[in-house]
Amino acid sequence: MVLELTDKNFEAEVIKSDKLTLVDFWAPWCGPCKVLGPIVEELAGEIKNLPVKVAKLNVDDNSASASSYGVMSIPTTIFFKGGQPVDQLVGVQTKEDLKKKINELLV
């Protein structure tokens, strides 16, 4: 299951999380975001047994969180570990590339 983030719950769900957290920064009007969305959903189902949280943040409705991490292009995927951003991917990614990045960051 993908967690829906807002500016209000971002700190509690991402910054204070003890899990590696993948955050998909997206918007409903963004074509590439519509391609990445189902990939992220499918990935969340496949990795539910790993200590990883998968979340989405609509940048139109929650611009404070997006701007605080310098998100200028969407979709942007930022990986957080220990409350800090540790890696970032811009554009549509394959499920395999996202899994590979998660496995690298879990080590």
CATH architecture: 3-Layer(aba) Sandwich
What is the average per-residue confidence, as pLDDT, rounded to a whole number?
96
Head-to-tail CA distance between termini? 23 Å
Counting DSSP H or I runs of 4 or more residues, the number of helices is 4
Can you summarize the main beta sheet? Answer: 5 strands, mixed
CATH superfamily: Glutaredoxin
Secondary structure tally: strands? 5
Number of domains: 1
Shape: globular
Radius of gyration: 12 Å
* SSE string, helices as H and strands as E: EHEHEHEEH
Fraction in helix: 25-40%
Low-confidence stretches: none
Strand content: 25-35%
- Tell me the strand order in the biggest sheet: 1-3-2-4-5
The computed structural class is alpha/beta
CATH classification class? Alpha Beta
Task: Give a structural overview.
With 107 residues, the protein is α/β, with parallel strands linked by helices. It has a single domain, classed as Glutaredoxin. The chain has helices at 10-15, 31-46, 63-68, 95-106; strands at residues 3-5, 20-26, 52-58, 76-81, 84-90. A five-stranded mixed β-sheet has the order 1-3-2-4-5. The longest helix has 16 residues, at 31-46. The two termini are 23 Å apart.
Strand and helix layout:
Layout: E1 3-5, H1 10-15, E2 20-26, H2 31-46, E3 52-58, H3 63-68, E4 76-81, E5 84-90, H4 95-106
Parallel strand pairs: 1-3, 2-3
Antiparallel strand pairs: 2-4, 4-5
Summary, kept brief:
37% of the residues lie in helices and 28% in strands.
